[in-house]
Amino acid sequence: MRIVDIIPHRVRIPFRSEFSHALCSRCETETIILEVRSDTGAVGVGEILPRPYLTGETLDRVMAEALPELARRWNTMELHGRDEVFAALNLELSRSGRSLATCAGWELALLDLAGKVFGFSAGDVVGPGAQHDLEPAAVIDFNIPTGKLECHCRMLRLRGLRHIKVKVGLADDVHRVEIIRKALGPSQPLRLDANAAWTADAAVDNLRQLKRFDIASIEQPVAAHDLAGMRTVREKTGVPVTADESLCSFSDGERLIQGKAADIFNVRIAKCGGLLGSAQLVVLAREAGLSCYLGTLVGETGILSRAAEVLGARIREFEFLEGKGQNRTLLAEDVVQMRSRPSEPAYGLGVELLQDRLDKYRISGQQTRDLAA
């Protein structure tokens, strides 16, 4: 198999409703849909969703620099089977540096393509796994007004959702969490996420007030680089700390463990280099005695969302998938449709690109070009 076409499409899709937390508010997603074609005629799809505050990547730099460089490395390569594909992707991950969103999107496109050519599932890259579907987890963000929290939580209970995360970083955090705790009941696990809104001292003060609501964990209480602050929060409050913005690469994970800065890793495929990078972080956490959550980035299309479900079906450490199905509930429309369940055998990722939707949401003035030409 040889790659003959690499075509990125920059698209913008509106949300059904705004999503807000301490770092930003979003009412649309802008992402790169990647089509990769082989000399066999098969096509694979991937998605690159960069976040500058996570990996430093931007959409402009991915399109102008990272993708053309990647294309130069791959468009003359001959691959003769699944094992060669996996080895080449491992090498790509090892030299990706902080271009982890680009690496993730490329990995997914190649696994989707090669899976169709050689007859394997994209999830095989991380092993045979358990083949189980994860429960969904809900996020209560700032877009839910305080006065509507009780009603919103009752709806979550009616839907049978057992895993809830609450965005914090507002002046009335204590009041909001109190409403949520009463509405959900005493047995509901409740995780908080500050999205780096606090200093270490503020985090300690706030969590001492919030602990009475039986908090399961606090995610990224301080800035991503402040590992000493994360350790301080752990040691002074006793609340388990989840690393999110501070966890992208394998080196990030090693620094967090060495600095005793986290109890839990929040793994997201788009920021962690793909399925391989995410699986490596799970092994690192397991060996260090840490737990892992599996999440998605706000605004993913069904390509990245399906990849998270595929990973979750293979790894026992994950209890739930945060943001599961958000491509159906948050996006006005998705640009792919699913061809199978994530735990069912399927060649590649098991998604199908909807060309009419792709054309509809492609950003005006963004000309697609074949990077392999």
Q: What is this structure's SSE topology?
A:
Layout: E1 3-20, E2 25-38, E3 43-48, H1 59-74, H2 82-94, H3 100-118, E4 135-140, H4 149-158, E5 164-167, H5 173-184, E6 190-193, H6 200-210, E7 217-219, H7 227-237, E8 241-243, H8 250-258, E9 264-268, H9 275-288, E10 291-295, H10 302-312, E11 320-322, H11 326-329, E12 336-338, E13 351-353, H12 355-361
Parallel strand pairs: 4-5, 4-11, 5-6, 6-7, 7-8, 8-9, 9-10
Antiparallel strand pairs: 1-2, 2-3, 12-13
Helix pairs in contact: 2-3, 4-5, 6-7, 8-9
Would you kindly provide a brief summary of this structure?
By secondary structure, this protein is of the alpha/beta class.
Description of the structure:
The protein is of the alpha/beta class. The chain has two domains: 3-125 and 352-361, Enolase-like, domain 1; 129-331, TIM Barrel (Alpha-Beta Barrel). The protein is built from twelve helices and 13 strands. The strands form three sheets. The protein has an eight-stranded parallel sheet. A three-stranded antiparallel sheet has the order 1-2-3. Strands 12-13 form a two-stranded antiparallel sheet. Helix 4 (149-158) runs parallel beside helix 5 and helix 6 (200-210) runs parallel beside helix 7 (227-237).
Q: What portion of residues is helical?
A: 25-40%
Number of E strands: 13
Separation, N- and C-terminal Cα atoms: 16 Å
| Mean pLDDT, all residues | 94
Lateral strand order in the biggest sheet: 10-9-8-7-6-5-4-11
The CATH superfamily title of the largest domain: Enolase-like C-terminal domain
Shape: globular
Structural domains: how many: 2
Q: How is the biggest beta sheet arranged?
A: 8 strands, parallel
